[in-house]
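In response to the reviewer comment on reproducibility (Comment 2.3), we provide here a single inverse folding case reported in full, input and output, so that an independent group could reproduce the run without further information from us. The structure tokens appear first.
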């Protein structure tokens, strides 16, 4: 397990903070990613567990009680993530490095990462052909980012894939007095079926959502590289490729082009595949997970976001205890 000990500081654990207890309990029925979910009132206890496992890097997502068309709950000062950051800082000071997602897909009624055109909401929206208002969305991302900075986040992590979002947000942070807050951009976030386990339990409308107009195409690696290079030019401190499992060729390609930390995200579908495999035919899950993470590292990833981290560190801790 020398490999794990060597990269533990580069692992980032995603946490979904639920504002509504009933929604939190319903989400547990999936059986997937449950260690990444926490009801807001139980936040301190969960973070005490994470501290014991020496998990120090957290990527926070909010699951609000209320949603509207523009996702306004995302930038309220008393929003679910804003309160969560303040609670973490109050109880743990700087023990955790906090990265905060900047998007509206969990907060709005469409499930899109941007403000959609027209007045239709929820299930009445068409599956295809939705137009995103790029500039209006960027303005909202700015409001979200400032509210997160005011709450005490270390990083903002814009994941909307709007054109020019990094330039806008980097300039906004600088002029607003938040130069020390860093940006981790979802630079090459690909349109993928691998997000479905997350969407099925955390979106207002879990039906198919076509995001191909603003997320990267699986078949166009040049576009993915352009997105990454543009984000660096516009002021991103870290850049990301998402998903990871079938994109390691892009990780290798990007690593040869960039001189900033390269992040990859092991998404919900990839996590579900491993879990499903362990149910069909018992496997050494810890060994499979280590080799999977090692392959990402070998491809060129400097940082790895993964739902697997909690289970892996629990198994590692148990194995260490048994060997004593």
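Designed residues, in position order:
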């Amino acid at each position: 397990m020398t490999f794990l000990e060597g990269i533990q500081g580069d692992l980032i654990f995603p946490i979904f903070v639920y504002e509504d207890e009933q929604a939190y309990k319903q989400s547990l029925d999936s059986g997937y990613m449950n260690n990444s979910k926490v009801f807001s009132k139980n936040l301190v206890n969960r973070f005490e567990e994470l501290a014991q496992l020496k998990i120090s890097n957290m990527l926070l997502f909010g699951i609000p009680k209320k949603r509207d068309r523009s996702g306004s709950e995302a930038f309220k000062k008393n929003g679910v993530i804003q309160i969560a950051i303040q609670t973490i800082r109050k109880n743990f000071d700087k023990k955790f490095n906090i990265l905060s997602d900047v998007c509206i897909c969990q907060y709005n009624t469409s499930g899109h990462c941007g403000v959609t055109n027209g007045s239709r909401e929820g299930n009445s929206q068409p599956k295809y052909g939705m137009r995103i208002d790029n500039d209006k969305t960027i303005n909202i991302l700015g409001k979200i980012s400032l509210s997160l900075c005011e709450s005490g986040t270390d990083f903002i992590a814009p994941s909307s894939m709007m054109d020019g979002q990094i330039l806008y947000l980097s300039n906004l942070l600088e002029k607003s007095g938040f130069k020390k807050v860093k940006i981790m951009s979802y630079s090459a976030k690909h349109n993928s079926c691998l997000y479905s386990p997350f969407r099925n339990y955390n979106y207002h409308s879990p039906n198919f959502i076509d995001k191909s107009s603003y997320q990267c195409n699986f078949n166009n690696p040049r576009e993915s590289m352009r997105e990454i290079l543009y984000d660096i030019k516009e002021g991103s401190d870290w850049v990301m490729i998402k998903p990871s499992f079938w994109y390691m060729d892009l990780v290798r390609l990007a690593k040869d082009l960039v001189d900033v930390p390269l992040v990859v995200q092991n998404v919900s579908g990839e996590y579900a595949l491993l879990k499903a495999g362990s149910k069909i035919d018992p496997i050494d899950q810890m060994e499979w997970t280590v080799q999977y993470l090692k392959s990402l590292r070998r491809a060129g990833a400097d940082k790895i976001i993964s739902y697997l981290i909690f289970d892996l560190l629990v198994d590692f801790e148990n194995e260490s205890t048994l060997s004593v």
